[in-house]
Amino acid sequence: MPALCRDCLARFDTGARCPSCRSPRVLSHPELCDLSIAHMDCDAFYASVEKRDNPELRDKPVIVGGGRRGVVSTACYVARIKGVRSAMPMFKALQLCPEAVVVKGRMETYAAVSRQIRAMMEEMTPAVEPLSLDEAFLDLTGTAKLHGAPPAVMLARLVKRMQDELGITGSIGLSHNKFLAKLASDLDKPRGFSVIGEAETLDFLENRPVSLIWGVGATGRAALERAGIRTFADLRRWDRRDLHSRFGSMGERLWHLSRGEDHRRVSPNAPAKGISNETTFSEDTADRDILDGHIWRLAEKVSDRAKAKGIAGRVVILKLKRADHSLLSRRLSLHEPTQMADGIYRTARRLFDQVTYTGPYRLLGVGISELSPASGADASGDLLDPQALRRAGAERATDRIRERFGHDAIVKGRSLR
Amino acid sequence: MKISIERGTLLKAVSQAQSVVERRNTIPILANVLIEADGESVSFRATDLDIEVVDRIPAQVERAGATTVNAVTFHEIVRKLPDGALVNLTDDSAAGRMSVEAGRSHFSLATLPREDFPVMASSEYETNFSAKAPVLRRLFDKSKFAISTEETRYYLNGVYMHVSESEEGQVLRCVATDGHRLARIDAPLPPEAEGMPGVIVPRKTVGELRKLLDDDEADIAVSVSETKVRFATPEITLTSKVIDGTFPDYTRVIPQGNAKRMEVDAADFAKAVDRVATVSSERSRAVKMQLDEDRLVLSVNAPDSGNAEEELAVAYGDERLEIGFNAKYLLEIASQVDRENAVFLFNSSGDPTLMREGNDTSAVYVVMPMRV
């Protein structure tokens, strides 16, 4: 069976230790040199960057996240031992791990490190599909000749380089499609390298829960459970047509995934699907004036980002989280794409006015999706809102003033609420 | 209940009923059509709780009675029966079944008790008048394309039918808009319609109403209250709730001072717009109109796929003008014109444009330009 030393990258034939450097970090698998779709996931990325930049934090539990009411973005592995998890409310994280050092995220630094990692990946293949700052799919099919080494070796070299040059560790999942590669990268974190071969695919999935499927959340899981589906084995017993008629297009996907089939390509230019911003309040609120202020500020943030990227969105999304953490989401498809804060705000506000629940809320989010280039955006006005064109003019003027004198040089009164 | 009906008559009534029934509903009885037989006729009643349609047709009634069956299934069966067949319907309420027999075909359909069927409460109508089918057809056909589908502006999801003042005196007027185009259609006011409350007739009702208006000679009895509207022929009665909202003040939207006048053959214009728009695959395709002395150049520039240009002879005597529109909107308003030339009245490239047929102000359309 082909084997690979993850420390010195030596290749050999089976063995518990590397014959050249005696390292025990040996990876062996019958299909090791045949698989080429990989998922790279950094280990506790934000926290690792913080620890790298501030060595005092090295052995302490570190949580990256915002405010008393915010949520955990990333917890380092020391904090995870105490049970702290991503997306957990901060107060709960601090109950579990009171000694944790909470660091406010430095997104720009993380983005810079992410770019360095991405550059390393792009040296290996043009088919790199980033999912976020700290994870990406790579398709290394057909690169073995060029690199003189199979994908597995190149991937081991990648994580070694990330550690040596950037001080960041990552885990690799290697398999024959995206779905399985992503599952694999999660199998022995941190500093993991897992392989799921074609031959073992069905056995591997057999008793695993269907909640592993991306896109199957709490609601999806409940719907599947009502149909008696909990594991992949349960799913595989279903007839393709029955799945389709019960779950629609998702059913079709489930049928394939239950067989370990996933035909999605690794697409390097997968454009952003949407732009959104959200805020968790320091106190739950039902005050419509305060909420209105948040809608405006978030709409403005989304608009700023859209303008910076030269894109616009046709769909406006409003997201609300009630005090009990349950989520409410509303969306509206516009007549034409917009990137204007005014348009995003007014649409989000209309969606907000339609919600019959009166609060209190703990979180509010505003976003746009179905993105397109800004050239076709905001091209026509609204007959019933003749002032809209004037407001758009005022917004463009505001943008130019901000460009010269800074963002706070001019603000709308409602953003001060 | 035991009745016999000719298949063609039955099909017409049942298809009217099944189109009202909401396809995705969770209340079983709402999927059903109520069949009531007495004397020498039988009625078919269907509702989605907002609209109710009753179609009464002659039949041989052997035994009076009533029952309800699934409207879609029943319609499918009748549709597939051979033309000219005599259909026998027999209700067996004890078994909860209704049998459908025609020639050698036999069906047995599950029924639900008639008592469960919601019948729309009858109400007092403040205004009752009669109108010829072609008059109503014109009012709704020419306005319905502009109905908005945006749910947050629910008050635009219908045609605003009301009494208004025009240059020719009082008129019965239908207006629809989605904020990007607007249609305003007038008809002479039937005397009895004076004082009618303005109502927003929902999109679906407009669609159902259309089926009552095919016969040029038919007189349609129209009844209007603040909350409901009813259209009736001797056979069919369509009752609908109206949209509970205030239609915006559209009068300030209709440009009064647009002075730049272009006259063009509507059909030639529509064909040219359609041709140049082919090169763009975007959802909102912008067509640029460049106007010069008696000359119109239509062009589309789609950076990803190509560009197109076409020149048209028009009557235009004003200064040069460049203005862009959504191709779909231009096509829609141009297709409303069927007798004379289309007359466009422009102001500037940023202002709403008005379109009408010749000098006829009883049908005007307003369309918002697009930046190109």
TrEMBL record, chain A:
Instruction: Give UniProt keywords alphabetically.
Output: Cytoplasm, DNA damage, DNA repair, DNA replication, DNA-binding, DNA-directed DNA polymerase, Magnesium, Metal-binding, Mutator protein, Nucleotidyltransferase, Transferase
Q: Give any GO molecular function from the UniProt entry.
A: DNA-directed DNA polymerase activity
Q: Where are the transmembrane segments?
A: none
- What positions does UniProt annotate as the active site of this protein? E135
Q: Name one GO biological process term.
A: DNA repair
How is the cofactor bound here? Answer: Binds 2 magnesium ions per subunit.
Q: Which GO terms describe its cellular component?
A: cytosol
Q: How does it assemble?
A: Monomer.
> What name has this protein been given in UniProt?
DNA polymerase IV
* Lineage of the species this protein comes from: Bacteria, Pseudomonadati, Pseudomonadota, Alphaproteobacteria, Rhodobacterales
The gene from which this protein is expressed is dinB
Automatic annotation (TrEMBL), chain B:
Protein location: Cytoplasm
Gene Ontology molecular function terms on file? 3'-5' exonuclease activity; DNA binding; DNA-directed DNA polymerase activity
Tell me the ranges covered by the DNA polymerase III beta sliding clamp C-terminal domain, including all copies. Answer: 252-371
Write down the superkingdom of origin: Bacteria
BP terms from Gene Ontology: DNA strand elongation involved in DNA replication
Asked whether the UniProt record includes Cytoplasm among its keywords, one would answer: yes
The residues covered by the DNA polymerase III beta sliding clamp central domain are 135-249
Q: List, alphabetically, the InterPro entries matched.
A: DNA_clamp_sf (IPR046938), DNA_polIII_beta (IPR001001), DNA_polIII_beta_C (IPR022635), DNA_polIII_beta_cen (IPR022637), DNA_polIII_beta_N (IPR022634)
Q: Assembly state and interactors? A: Forms a ring-shaped head-to-tail homodimer around DNA.
> So what does this one do?
Confers DNA tethering and processivity to DNA polymerases and other proteins. Acts as a clamp, forming a ring around DNA (a reaction catalyzed by the clamp-loading complex) which diffuses in an ATP-independent manner freely and bidirectionally along dsDNA. Initially characterized for its ability to contact the catalytic subunit of DNA polymerase III (Pol III), a complex, multichain enzyme responsible for most of the replicative synthesis in bacteria; Pol III exhibits 3'-5' exonuclease proofreading activity.
Q: What is this protein called?
A: Beta sliding clamp
Q: Which organism is it from?
A: Tranquillimonas rosea
